[in-house]
From TrEMBL:
Belongs to the alpha-IPM synthase/homocitrate synthase family. LeuA type 1 subfamily. This is 2-isopropylmalate synthase. Its EC number is 2.3.3.13. Pathway: Amino-acid biosynthesis; L-leucine biosynthesis; L-leucine from 3-methyl-2-oxobutanoate: step 1/4. One of its GO terms (molecular function) is acetyl-CoA C-acetyltransferase activity. The keyword Lipid biosynthesis does not apply. It comes from the Bacteria. Its cofactor is Mn(2+). It catalyses: 3-methyl-2-oxobutanoate + acetyl-CoA + H2O = (2S)-2-isopropylmalate + CoA + H(+). One of its GO terms (biological process) is L-leucine biosynthetic process. Keywords: Acyltransferase, Amino-acid biosynthesis, Branched-chain amino acid biosynthesis, Cytoplasm, Leucine biosynthesis, Manganese, Metal-binding, Transferase. Catalyzes the condensation of the acetyl group of acetyl-CoA with 3-methyl-2-oxobutanoate (2-ketoisovalerate) to form 3-carboxy-3-hydroxy-4-methylpentanoate (2-isopropylmalate). Mn(2+) binds at residues 10, 197, 199, 233.
């Protein structure tokens, strides 16, 4: 399974997520080091800064394919090629909106757009032997027209066909079916890689990407922390860990070293200024945290009771058992041991009563609070 990361392109298009040149270079290096197959480094014609970032990422790259985005226009394609040509493995990604709503913007008829696709994909292919083509808003494009334009792009030399759910409109059952039917119907489909690019407007981006894989997609486009336009894109960490954890029903390998996920997630959060929500799957602060007594007791006896992944596998040293009003005696005793305090059963009972009283007043009880409770218990006691 090819992992195509677009944190530096679609992710950076997220309002307010702009990164500096050096930050982009750092993230690209981390992505390559983590094993991302294709890095979409930016949109070279968008600005001088974007061009320079894509060019410098391309020039420093080693194994990853470095991709630049270009609209279906010759100046875009030429600028994109200028930026990526220093990479050992460059790719041009060109796109055009094919749904009725998007065709209306340049006011092109179906035939005119089909001609434009043939010309621009052929042009891209003359510049670079690795060309990806996307029919933007594919999931709202008429079925017959979608088949027609995908066939044209393949004939013109596209090597990857990416099917974007640009507005996060599709549902998993449709996502799988769309890719499956395209592969079955379009002549030449077996000579290219089909890719999925999902947005999260209805919270279904990861489910849709995995469904597309079920339908035959072999490239997943995604971003770190799910950064991206509006509600974001499929999150890299989610698809990677879903494939790793549920290999029993989705037998696909990625080249991602999952132990590097947490570090890159934190760096992307810092440089983009986008905090990761506490309950975000895989990388949220609470993803491996257990507060309630029943859960803490279970996890202390056997982590698998409430964890389907190992924290170490995503680069976390350990899970956490934050103490709060739902916590039980087992977690309190465990915390006291970690703090170097061994207490007898009666003392534990006393400290536990004090702890519950405090926890009712405070959201989270910290190590310092626990140590103070122990001192109080000893003094009163
Ligand atoms: O969402 C989208 O359609 C895109 C394309 C440029 C692939 O990001
Ligand atoms: Zn997108």
């Amino acid at each position: 399974m090819y992992i195509f990361d677009t944190t530096l392109r679609d992710g950076e298009q997220s309002p307010g997520a702009t990164m500096t040149h050096d930050e982009k270079l750092e993230i690209a290096e981390l992505l390559e080091d983590m094993g991302v197959d294709i890095i979409e480094a930016g949109f070279p014609i968008a600005s001088e800064g974007d061009f320079a970032a894509v060019r410098d990422i391309a020039n420093r790259s080693k194994n990853a394919v470095i991709c630049g985005l270009a609209r279906a226009q010759v100046p875009d394609l030429e600028r994109c090629w200028e930026a990526i040509k220093g990479a050992p493995r460059p790719r041009i990604h060109t796109f055009i909106g094919t749904s009725p709503l998007h065709r209306a913007i340049p006011n092109l008829s179906q035939d005119e757009m089909a001609d434009r696709i043939f010309e621009t994909v052929s042009h891209a292919r003359n510049l670079c032997d690795n060309v990806q083509w996307s029919p933007m808003d594919a999931t709202r494009t008429e079925w017959d027209y979608l088949c027609r334009v995908v066939e044209i792009a393949i004939k013109a030399g596209a090597t990857t066909i990416n099917i974007p759910d640009t507005v996060g409109y599709t549902a998993p059952v449709e996502s799988a079916e769309l890719i499956r039917r395209l592969i079955q119907t379009v002549p030449g489909a077996d000579e290219v890689i089909f890719s999925t690019h999902c947005h999260n407007d209805l919270g279904m981006a990861t489910a849709n990407a995995l469904a597309a894989v079920e339908g035959g997609a072999r490239q997943i486009e995604c971003t770190i922390n799910g950064l991206g336009e509006r509600a974001g894109n499929t999150a890299l960490e989610e698809v990677v860990m879903a494939l790793k954890t549920r290999g029993d029903i989705m037998p696909f390998e990625t080249g991602i070293d999952s132990k590097k996920i947490m570090h890159i997630s934190r760096r992307v959060s810092t440089v983009s200024g986008f905090a990761v929500q506490y309950n975000k799957a895989i990388v949220g602060k609470n993803a491996f945290a257990h507060e309630s007594g029943i859960h803490q007791d279970g996890v202390l006896k056997n982590a698998e009771t409430f964890e389907i992944m190992k924290p170490e596998d995503v680069g976390l040293a350990t899970n956490s058992l934050p103490l709060g009003k739902h916590s039980g005696r087992a977690a309190l005793r465990d915390k006291l041991r970690q703090l170097g305090t061994e207490v007898g059963d009666n003392q534990l009972k006393d400290i536990f009563v004090r702890f519950k009283d405090l926890a009712d007043r405070k959201k989270e009880v910290y190590d310092e609070d626990i140590l103070a409770l122990v001192t109080d218990a000893m003094t009163d006691g």
